[in-house]
Amino acid sequence: MLPQSDKIWIRPSSIKTFIKNPYEWYQTHILKEYTPPRSYLTLGTAVHHGINIGYEEFIKTGVLPKANIILEATSEEFLKLSSTTSWEEDEDENEFAILASRLSLAYHKEIMPTVQPKYTEQYVEVKFDKNPYIAGVRGTIDLITQDNTLVDVKTAGMLNKSLQLKHELQLSVYSLLAKKSGMSIESASIHEIVKPTSTIDTRTRIVPIELQEQKADEVLELLSSRIADFYRAVNGEPILDPANLF
Question: Which terminal residue of the chain, N or C, has fewer Cβ atoms less than 10 Å from its own Cβ?
Answer without folding.
Answer: C
